[in-house]
């Protein structure tokens, strides 16, 4: 997720710079020069100000953190196959012990989250469940600051989810680089 946020931040900066170079060139009357053409902007709207750039970065980071939190919460509930749940319990207990030992020595060490331990295959499992989660989500009973209460937040969520899926598709080899460990089932 960190790589996604960093890469998209760089793309936003490049789009911002390109747009402002073209704008400056157009204002100076020199529109014959080209630095990439009209279709260079990403699928998002043109970022007009530094404030827009900062806001987009903040929203994307919040989206990434929300997805990680959702993976953490849903892994033990429905993202793991039955055979993987025992492995998950043992793994989390092992890491909790190791984290406790480290925190005794270093009070700044953060606890490891399931989303940091499980590879991208589990993120794909979450993507498959998102329509179900959204259809079952009752806005009246849940947090009024929900991501889906405002049209703008819904559009941001859909845009960032789409960006993340395209990001994963274009980096399949990196995202799925043999990190998946199959559970050994005893007969």
* Largest sheet properties: none
| Cα-to-Cα separation, first versus last residue | 37 Å
Helix content: 55-70%
**Whole-number radius of gyration?**
21 Å
| Multimeric state | single chain
What is the 3D shape? elongated
List the total number of helices: 7
Uncertain residue segments: 33-44
Beta-strand percentage?
under 5%
Q: What is the count of β-strands?
A: 0
| Helix vs. strand class | mainly alpha
Mean pLDDT: 78
* Helix and strand sequence: HHHHHHH
Please sum up the structure shown.
With 187 residues, this protein is mainly α. 67% of the residues lie in helices and 0% in strands.
What does this protein structure show overall?
- The relative contact order is 0.11.
- Residues 33-44 have low confidence and may be disordered.
- Helix 1 runs antiparallel to helix 2 (50-79) and helix 2 (50-79) crosses helix 5 (120-136).
- The protein has seven helices and no strands.
- It has 187 residues and is mainly α.
- The longest helix has 30 residues, at 50-79.
- It is elongated and about 75 Å long.
- It has helices at 2-27, 50-79, 82-105, 114-117, 120-136, 151-170, 172-175.
Secondary structure blueprint with pairings:
Layout: H1 2-27, H2 50-79, H3 82-105, H4 114-117, H5 120-136, H6 151-170, H7 172-175
Keywords:
elongated; 0% strand; mainly alpha; 187 residues
């Amino acid at each position: 997720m960190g790589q996604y946020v960093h890469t998209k931040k760089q793309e936003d900066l490049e789009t911002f710079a390109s747009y402002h170079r073209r704008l400056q060139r157009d204002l100076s009357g020199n529109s014959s020069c080209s630095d990439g053409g009209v279709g260079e902007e990403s699928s998002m709207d043109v970022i007009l100000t530094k404030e827009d750039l900062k806001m987009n970065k903040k929203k994307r980071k919040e989206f990434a953190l929300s997805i990680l939190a959702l993976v953490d919460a849903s892994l033990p509930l429905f993202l793991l196959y039955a055979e993987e749940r025992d492995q998950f319990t043992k793994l989390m207990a092992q890491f909790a012990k190791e984290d406790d030992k480290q925190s005794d020595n270093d009070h700044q060490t953060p606890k490891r989250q399931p989303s940091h331990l499980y590879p991208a295959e589990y993120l794909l499992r979450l993507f498959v469940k998102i329509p179900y989660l959204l259809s079952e989500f009752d806005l009246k009973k849940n947090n009024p600051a929900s991501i889906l209460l405002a049209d703008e937040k819904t559009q941001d969520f859909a845009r960032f989810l789409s960006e993340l899926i395209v990001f994963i598709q274009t980096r399949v080899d990196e995202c799925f680089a043999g990190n998946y460990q199959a559970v050994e089932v005893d007969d």
